[in-house]
Amino acid sequence: MLPVGRKRLLRVKSECDKMTSEIKTISTPFIFRIFNISVNCYLVKTGNHCILIDTGLHNKRNIIEKEIERAGCWPGKLKLIILTHGDFDHTGNAAYFRKKFGAKIAMHYNDSGMVENGNMFWNRKKGNNLIKMIAPVIFGFGKQERFKPDFTVDEGYDFSEYGFNAKVISIPGHSKGSIGILTTDGDLFCGDLLANINKPDLWLIVDDKAAMNASAKKLKSLKINMVYPGHGKPFQMELFLKNQR
């Protein structure tokens, strides 16, 4: 006879295996609508609950909030916010959505100082001092947008306890704490490792080129069907691989 705890784990796993995820892309313009670049959040519906991957720009909050509610995700239904990295265009509404919807926030510890201190250049290579000063103003990331994540994640972290059949893959390069979320269906939420502006390619903003190239190479060894980038439309992984050849 199996112990009660073991029975519960098997039951939870069985219930998760039956769940199918519905992915909703919430896309808003980047700052000043430059180069027609979008910023994406992804609302993943798993059974009766939702997972939000990235939270968009602070000054686009109303648009994103309405789309979340239009999808039927009300307070109490949003269980988790996963942040692919610490940049303000991806974390700008995390603190607000956590308070409104009652969700926990998860991100990699190597980027947590960005959102705790309001400094996108925390734990990055030395950047332009002027950009450091104006970035919070441009992105609308003030003191009330700062927060501490509820917990941090690293390579292999499993989200199945939230009804989300997906694991974390570490993909540094854009930032040290950049992560991807890979589902058992082969959907990859890649943050700012890859983008789809003119074509699927590496994102143009790089902190560590060698690390970014290594992360891109790592993807080739994984079973990925669709890629959901931080900027640009989702695309088939095969298109990226074809461009790289």
If you had to describe this structure to a student in words, what would you say it looks like?
With 245 residues, the chain is α/β, with parallel strands linked by helices. The chain has a single domain, classed as Metallo-beta-lactamase, Chain A. The chain contains 8 helices and 13 strands. Strand 8 (179-183) and strand 9 form a beta hairpin. The relative contact order is 0.14.
Structural class: alpha/beta
Number of helices: 8
**What's the number of extended β-strand segments?**
13
Tell me the fraction of residues in β-strands, as a range: 25-35%
Q: How many angstroms separate the termini?
A: 54 Å
Mean pLDDT: 90
What is the CATH architecture assignment?
4-Layer Sandwich
Number of domains: 1
Please give a handful of descriptors for the protein shown:
245 residues, alpha/beta, Metallo-beta-lactamase, Chain A, 6-stranded mixed beta sheet, 5-stranded mixed beta sheet, 8 helices, 13 strands
Topology:
Elements: H1 4-18, E1 21-29, E2 38-46, E3 49-53, H2 61-70, E4 78-82, H3 88-91, H4 94-101, E5 104-108, H5 112-117, H6 129-139, E6 151-153, E7 166-170, E8 179-183, E9 187-191, E10 194-196, E11 200-202, H7 209-219, E12 226-229, E13 235-236, H8 237-244
Parallel strand pairs: 3-4, 4-5, 5-6, 9-12
Antiparallel strand pairs: 1-2, 2-3, 7-8, 8-9, 10-11, 12-13
